[in-house]
Amino acid sequence: MDYEFETRQTEAQHVLTIHATTTAHQLPELLGELFGEVYGHIAGQGGQPSGMPFTRYYDMDGVNVDFECGMPVASPMVGTGRVRAGELPACTVATVTHMGPYDNLPQSWNALLSWMGSQGLEPAGPPWEVYVTDPGAEPDQSKWRTDIFFPVR
Q1: How far is the CA of 53 from the CAs of 4, 63, 123, 132, in angstroms?
Q2: Handedness of CA 122, 128, 104, 50 (dihedral sign)
Q3: Residue 32: CB partners within 8 Å, gap ≥ 6?
Q4: What residues contact residue 112 under an 8 Å CB cut-off, 6+ apart?
Q5: Please, what's the b/e burial string for 73-107 (b: 16 or more CB within 10 A of its CB; e: otherwise)?
Q6: Strand 91-99 and strand 145-151: pairing?
Q7: Is 55 in a helix, a strand, or coil?
Q8: pLDDT of residue 2
Q9: Dist CA 117 CA 35 (whole Å)
């Protein structure tokens, strides 16, 4: 896969999220459930997401994954229960777009990390993925787009 890497500035973004820990194997199934819960919370307050769903990763040890998943909203909303209000940060990120099945995402992550190293960029916070393509609307996995953002200094 050909990659186009870049650094850019992101703006702060209001989000509603659910923080969880699971195994890497169970992550895909759990994400669908949690995204549904976040969306239901937003809709229950009469709102709509202002962008595509994302997952932010706090720790991955090869077996377990500590993460939060959520959706951006146009203005601050109240979180209740395990749905929390928060923000994706305004920061400088290294970014790359992954095209294809989610199973191949580790290759794109490794390529981004390698590029960051070659550019002298150091991690400066938890990275996140934005799922630009809705798999329910696009059955062809080769057309699935995922944007990866890694805060750097």
Answers
A1: 22, 23, 22, 8
A2: negative
A3: none
A4: 3, 5, 94, 95, 96, 148, 150
A5: beeebebeeebbebebbebebbbbbbbbebeeeee
A6: antiparallel
A7: strand
A8: 87
A9: 32
pLDDT digits (tens, 9 = 90+) for 73-88: 999 999 999 999 999 9
Percent of the chain with pLDDT over 90: 93
Cβ atoms of 15 and 71 within 8 Å: the answer is yes
So what's the pLDDT on residue 1?
73
Task: Give tens-digit pLDDT for 26-77.
Answer: 998 999 999 999 999 999 999 999 999 999 999 988 789 999 999 999 999 9
DSSP assigned state of 90: P
Query: At 141, phi and psi to the nearest 5?
Result: -60, -25
Half-sphere exposure of residue 73, counting CA atoms within 13 Å on the CB side? 23
Close Cβ partners of 51 (under 8 Å, ≥ 6 residues apart): 13, 71, 72, 130
Structure tokens of 104? 């191949």
d(CA 116, CA 114): 5
Q: List, in sequence order, every beta strand (DSSP E) within the chain.
A: 6-10, 13-23, 54-60, 64-72, 84-88, 91-99, 128-131, 145-151
